[in-house]
Amino acid sequence: MVYFLSDSHIGSRALTDRHAHEQLICSLLSDLGRDATAIYLLGDIFDFWFEYLWQQPQEYTLTLSTLRQLTDKGVDVHFFTGNHDLWTFGELARQTGMTIHRQHEELVINNRRCFLAHGDGLMSTDALRKYPKHVRRRIRQFMFIRRIFHCRPLQMLFRLLPPAWGNRFGYEWSRKSRLKELARPWPYKGEDKEELVLFAKEKETTTHFDYYIFGHRHIELDLQLATSARVIILGDLFKLYSYAAMDDNGNIELRTLDIQNN
Ligand SMILES: [Mn+2]
Questions:
Q1: What distance in Å separates the CA atoms of residue 161 and residue 167, rounded to the nearest whole number?
Q2: CATH class given for the domain over 2-261
Q3: What percent of the chain has pLDDT over 70?
Q4: What is the pLDDT, as a whole number, of residue 262?
Q5: Residue pLDDT, tens place only, 48-103
Q6: Which of 14, 48, 109, 141 allows an S-S link to 178, with CB 3.0 to 4.6 Å?
Q7: pLDDT, position 138
């Protein structure tokens, strides 16, 4: 089996018991590891991950050891950076043995052509035109912040900060963004408006994929396009506790973790 997970936001200060949450995610990872050949982590696994020059992240010891156990037993674990955990400069791969992906990938998995990405920053060329002004503003703000986050010189400056300062800023920013989303969720906008669906449709005009698999949106979606491509948005492991599983024949389905029995 191959599994696709995203948006667990481990460590989030918006959680009442973040340690219980981390344990839940790690026990899921270990369970999946029993029959997984590969696990694709599609972004925002950590609510804030930053490797400073003189200090590596001190949290997440359980997650890191769980991931290390998976790769040690031969599971192919792939970590796509999200918009909360993109600040890895080699340490995360070293500690866990995962393969890090800093941008989208086009991969063949179990004979299916897959387009994999966290999903932030992907937009069809004409998407902005379709939105009302307040949505366009929100998207532009997001893209501006995204550019700052990805700016190498600024990353290097941030690495020089005392970790206590940097972390206070990072976790607080993440906590606010989680709370904002919980208070005012953005439901599925529909096939003609959802950015990632529009992106997939545009991509299909030049290249066909069997699956487009995304995280980031914290909604569950399994949508078949006219070209027979399927757009899968994974939901999250924060509130929805959903993920996707692909069998050896390349069939994929969304699953929900039964958190009552965990
Ligand atoms: Mn995200």
A1: 9
A2: alpha beta
A3: 99
A4: 58
A5: 999 999 888 889 999 999 999 999 999 999 999 999 999 999 999 999 999 999 99
A6: 14
A7: 85
Q: Where do we find the tokens 């998207």?
A: 139
Average pLDDT over residues 8-31: 97
> Cα–Cα distance between 83 and 147 in angstroms, integer?
11
pTM of the model: 0.94
* 97-128 pLDDT, tens digit each: 999 999 999 999 999 999 999 999 898 777 77
Please give the distance, rounded to the nearest whole angstrom, from the Cα atom of residue 71 to the centre of ligand 1: 24
Ramachandran quadrant class, 74 (left: phi over 0; alpha: psi -120 to 50; beta: rest):
left
Ligand 1 midpoint to CA 95 (Å): 23
Tell me the CA–centroid distance for residue 6 and ligand 1, in Å: 9
Residues 111-129 as b/e (b if ≥16 CB within 10 A, e otherwise) read ebbbbbbbbbbbbbeebee
Distance from the alpha carbon of residue 119 to the mean position of ligand 1, in angstroms: 7
Angstrom distance (rounded) from CA 254 to CA 2 = 12
Rounded to a whole number, what is the distance in angstroms from the first to the last CA of the chain? Answer: 21
